[in-house]
Every structure is written in C-alpha cells, then in structure tokens.
Amino acid sequence: MLSSRGTVTAPAPIPLRSVPADDACPFVALPRPFASIPREEWQRLHALTPAATPFSRWTFHRAWWDGYGGSAHEQYLAVVARDDPERLRGIVPLMHRHEVEATDSLTASTLRHGPGAPLTGVPPTAKAVFFAASYHADYATVLSAPDDLPGVARAAVATLADPPDPGHGSEPWEIVDLRRLRADDPATAALASAFRAVVDDAGWCFLREREDVCPTVELPEGADWDGFLAALGKKERHEVRRKLRRAEAAGEVRLAFVADPAAAVDGFIALHQARWGADGLFPDSEGGRRSRRFLESLAALEGPGGALEIGFVTVGGRRVAAVAGFDDGTTISYYNAGGDPAARDLSPGVLAVSLYLQAALARGRRAFDFLRGQEPYKYEWGARDVPVDRLLVWRTVGQGPDGGGDGR
Fold first, then answer.
1. Domain co-membership, 264 together with 346
2. Bridge partners (DSSP) listed for residue 29
3. Is the distance from CB of 140 to CB of 94 less than 8 angstroms?
4. 58 lies in which domain range?
C-alpha cells in the first residue's frame, strides 16, 4: 500500500504463504557467508557475466565489508545445480539490514538516487534485503553465465520465499529493495520475471521503477583526442581548449597513475577533502573513517595491475587534482576525484576529465562512464544517460501501489 507521502505502509502482520517448490528449476540457492565463497570461483563467474562491472568484483565486496561491515548483515546466495551441487553456477550477492539501524542512526549510509521522480519510499523500520555493497556501488548484478541466469534468478526468489533463515534472525524480511540494476542488464529482466511468477502465491507486491542514470560517453573506435573534441559542441570544445592552453602556459600538464594504488590513498584523500570538506567522503568522523578503511582495503586488494587506478594531475610539477577510477579493459568508470581549491584558476576538474579521457582514448577503451548522477558537466563531454532501475518487493495483501513506477 502507498501512503499519501509515497511510502509503502507496513501492513498488519500476515502469515507467510508457502510457495510450492519450483521443481522445474534445475538450480537451488543456498545462503552462504561471503568468506566461504572461493575468490577464484567468484572471479570465474564474474568473467562469465556480460553485465559484470568492477563493482561486482570480489575485491569490491571484500573491501566494502572491511569498511562498512558493521552497518549490514551478509545474505549471499550460492546457486548450484540440483544434480551437481559441487559446482557453483551463480552468486546472488545480498545483504540485509533495517532501512535505518537503531544502533547506527548517526552514521547510517543512505542509498542516494537521482533527482527525477521520487522513488517509492519504505518505512525506516523495515527489514530490507539489498544487493550487497550497493550503498557505495554504482552498478549491481547477479553473477552467472547467460544460459544459467533465468534459473539462478528463479532459485534466488524461491529462497527468499522460504521462512526466515535462523542464521539471519527469526524476523522475515519486509522489503526486498534491489538497486543499481542497469535497465538493459539481463539480470534485471530475469529477476523481475522470477518475482512476478510468485507474487500472487506469496502474498507479495512487486514494482520496477527507474532509480537513476549513469551518464556515459561512447568513445568512437580509433578516435584520437582531436577527433573526440570535434564531436563536442562548439562552445564546449572552445572551453576545453581554452582551459587546457591556460594550464599549459603555467607548466607541463600531466596525469600520472601510481603503480600501486595503495601508495596513493593518502594523497587522493587529501585532495578529495581539500575540494569537498565536510561534504566529502573522508571527514574526521566515524563515517569518514569507514570510507577510509574501505578505500585502503580496496586499493590493497586490487594492487598493481588491478581494476582500480588512482592518479594525480600536475601542472608544472604541482599536484592540482586527483582521480580514482576503474579500468575493466573496455570501459573507464570515473569513480571519484578531488582538487586543490588554491589551483582554481587552472580548472583542475576540467584538467582531470580531459586527461583521463585522453588516457581512455589512447588505451582504446570504448566508453567513459561518469557513473550515477546528472551533474551538468558530464553532458558537456557528450555523455548520454544509461538508465538504472530498482526492483522493489514487499509483503502485503491485495494490489501493488497505484502510482509508482511503470510495473514492467
């Protein structure tokens, strides 16, 4: 049910209706601690998943639990075939927590979303199931080979329909709130189909709605920097060239990536905080310390040659900006940045994007993903929106909400 403020109201408790076992599904999903899933098996399935991104890497999940583990509880599902239980066929990375934990109200993370139509709200006391690590990831998905994906999704939903797992407490979930799903990710359609197949028998309601967008620049194959600039609007092209010339007049302009990202964490944080201050990720607070632990762990786990890269923009040898991103061999994901406010006259933000884009072109990458958020500067570089969806399921009697989402 939807309240006048757009919040799914908590209905009176109802018995959980049993859902018949899906005997036609060849797979079964088993709750497993994250640490029990072998890293090599995780990496194998990641490589088989077309929609997998750096946010689905084992390293990202391990680092998230290292930094933010006190704010949620693991609920990973390892999916195996009924006739071959030794071989992992899928991973559905889940966690659960109350929307706002009573013990975490001052430092609780929130799931940021785009400024478009308001998302369907849920009560702050609701026990919710999310994709693991999705509070700080821009994409989430199910790890599975394409042919196995429909069965993996059905097995996951069947497990969610079971009574509560004693290992996760006696209280059943009230909300399944799966965010960060690309609209064109096959996992989005597979999960939506699996939920729709059981909602009537389970006494659930289901909603699919647009959560956010990730503005992304498609990089033409074989294009160089001049060719890329030629595709921008006249005003944007002129501004980029003008700002680059002004910086070059002050000294050599370079973007250099540190071979071992762990060695660059302190420098990156210093420039990030110089730019963002109290609004940054790393203030002197418990939340800031969690963010630092996460980045330190991620950098150490990725190590030299990993997907994470941290670099510094210098002008005449002076550091003016820092960038952190992921390179998966096809796409550069522009994760975060910082800059020296004292170098504002050198336009450190424009320099950082310009030089990172030049690096992407030189490497032959096909896309530069600015990730979530509709900041105007992203579109000045020719970005186009990649839609990101949310799947929301809640326990109730009767029909779903009247005005949220498109019900796809």
1. yes
2. 79
3. no
4. 27-213+387-395
